[in-house]
Amino acid sequence: MTTATETVTLESVTLEGIRQFLYREARHLDDREFEQWLECYHPDADFWMPAWADDDRLTTDPQREISLVYYPSRAGLEDRVFRIRTDRSSATSLPEPRTGHNITNVEITGRDGDLVDVRFNWFTLYYRYQTVDTYFGTSFYRIDLSGPDPLIISKKVVLKNDYVHHIVDIYHV
User: Fold this and answer.
1) If you average pLDDT over every residue of the chain, what do you get?
2) Model confidence at 90, in pLDDT bands (50, 70, 90)?
3) What gap in Å lies between CA 2 and CA 94, rounded to an integer?
4) CA 41/CA 76 separation, integer angstroms
5) pLDDT per residue over 35-68, tens digit each?
6) How much is the average pLDDT of 24-34?
7) In Å, how far are 6, 44, 140, 143, 161 from 109, measured between CA atoms?
8) CA angle in degrees (0–180, nearest 5) for 22-117-11
9) One-letter-per-residue 3-state SS of the chain
10) Is the peptide bond before 50 cis (omega within 30 degrees of 0)?
């Protein structure tokens, strides 16, 4: 649910309004409110986490190179949430993981009409099986402000961990 102070409109794009939107998206993941989290995404939104290639560079083409996560539309995210909710995922068996997302250094890096480009750093604490893991990186979003609520139309997540202990899933980032 969006409150008057959280609303971001094209006429009043502010850094604080963008932050509030990003915090809300992260809160939905931490609270395992995946259906509300999906509402932050445009139906045509792509979600991409490129992999690090052998030459210590990120892969550049999710269609031809390995990615840690790639969904070309929200339908893929919806399928992932369905699998999480119905225990059809080895990454989300019981006990359910607990996460805490932290967002820093939020910048509006561009604007093209109704579209705003945003970059920020993040880290997520992940608890499961009496162990805490840390994931960290930088995210790049394109957000559509043409409707009543902001919608993510593109999300690129650069995971900067050198080694991860588990399969990386949508709630880690």
Assistant:
1) 87
2) low
3) 31
4) 11
5) 999 999 999 999 999 998 888 899 899 999 989 9
6) 96
7) 20, 22, 9, 11, 24
8) 80
9) CCCCCCCCCHHHCCHHHHHHHHHHHHHHHHCCCHHHHHCCEEEEEEEEEECECCCCCECCCCCCCCEEEEECCHHHHHHHHHHHHCCCCHHHCCCCCEEEEEEEEEEEEEEECCEEEEEEEEEEEEEECCEEEEEEEEEEEEEECCCCCCEEEEEEEEECCCCCCCCCCHHHC
10) no
- Which residue is it, tokens 């995404």? 41
Instruction: Give the whole-angstrom CA distance, residue 89 versus residue 129.
Output: 16
| Phi, psi angles (nearest 5°) of residue 29 | -65, -45
The model carries a pTM of 0.87
CA-CA distance, 129 to 45, in Å (whole number)? 33
pLDDT (tens digit, 9 = 90+) per residue, 103-118? 999 999 999 999 999 9
159: its two tokens: 């995971």
Residue 118 Rama label (left phi>0; alpha psi -120 to 50; beta): beta
Going by DSSP bridges, is the β-strand pair 151-159/41-50 parallel, antiparallel, or unpaired?
parallel
Residue 96 to residue 8: CA distance in whole angstroms:
33
Q: Which residue has the tokens 């991860």?
A: 164
